[in-house]
Structure formats: C-alpha cells, structure tokens
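Course assignment 3, question 2. Fill in each field.
Student: A.L.
Task: Predict the tertiary structure for the chain below.
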Amino acid sequence: MADDAISLFRMLVEAGAKPGEDFSYNLQTASAEISDRAFAMLQATYPDINWSSVCERISVDPAIPVDALNRYLGVDFTEQILTRIEQRISDLSPMQATWYLQQVLGGVEHRTKIPLYMLLQRRMSLDKQIWLERLLRQEASPCYVWMSDLVEAAGGELEDVELSGDGATLTQSGLALLTAVWDGDYDIVAEEFAVEEAAEEPVAEEPATEKPATEKFVVKDETNDPSEEE
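Answer field:
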C-alpha cells in the first residue's frame, strides 16, 4: 500500500498538482485527500485509469505528508520547525509559549495534516511531555514570533517577516510560505510600501520619477482584536 501511495504522489505531481495545496494526506485515516482540481488533473493526465475507484482504496504511509511537504518546499520543514518549537517554548514566558504552541501545532496540522504534536512528543522525555501538556492547557498571552519561525522553517528569509504589536508584515514570498504550511483565523491586508533607494545626485535634464512600490501583507490576529472588546 505504501508503494501505491508513493505512486499516487508522483502522478499527482506529474499532473501539475501541488502538495499541501491540491492534495494532502490524513494520518488518522491513512488516506489521501485530493482537491477537485487535483482530481481533474489526474483524470486529464491519465484518462485510462478509473480514478473514482482507485482513490477509494489507496492507503498512505504516515511519513508521506512530511516527505511531500519537504520536497515541495525544498527544505526539511518538519525538522526545522520542531527544533524551533523546542527552543522557543524554553525561551518564551509560559503564557506566550502556550500561544505559540496553539498557533503552530494547530495551524500546521490543519493545513498540512502533519501531526506536529505527536512528533514533538516523540522527541521529549516523559517529564517534558507532561510539561508540554500543562502548557497547552493553561491561559495564553499573544506572541507573534511563530509567524517568523514558520516562514523561516519553510525556507524564507529574516526580512520576509517584520513583527509588530498585534501581528506581522510579510513580503509576498513570506505570505506564500506561511499559507503553504499554516491555516488559521487571521486577517490579511495588502499594502504598498515605497522602496527605499540610495540618494543620488539629481539629473537636471531628466524629469523626476516616482519611486517604485512593493506590495507587502499585514497579517493581524482576528482572535485578539481590541476593537471587538466592549
């Protein structure tokens, strides 16, 4: 069955489908979840196969969603984000660590079907696992460093995320990486920012031109909006 799942993954990619966007794998049911778009791609690329029948019986190796996402991003996202989680929850205050864990563990698993919580537990001693469980059960305090950690773990750069009081400003590349690995309740607003250029001597005979602008995206937490409080 694992060979069947690997073959399906290859065929989906060859058909033009994107892991984590057009298809993913459900570890709980050991089955592939394929979007209507990906299903149509399979039917168009391999018209001689009865995909309705095939997709009902294929089971999937639990390691496949990890490998699929890592291959799609071109980096070992899972290992990098697990390492960052371990470091952050030790450095942050307990309530901030709770917020961080809630966003990363829940958002990544919802988007990619990768069971980060289970994988994180496997790396911990029993005492650490008990501590982790307590963190997840206590009250949380807003902390937005998880956005930069996810983007960088997915292959982004430091400048792709600029943290602010109630969210972050992301470049187009940063937003694409974040949405590839995470899903949650945040408000995304596109804004244009002037590109700063080095000062140059003005040229008298040439008319002044406007500086180009680049689009960035402000990501704000909808679950922690002060304007909604009475």
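Instructor remarks: The beta strands are 23-26, 31-34, 161-164, 167-171, 186-194, 213-221. The longest strand covers residues 186-194.
Grade: pending
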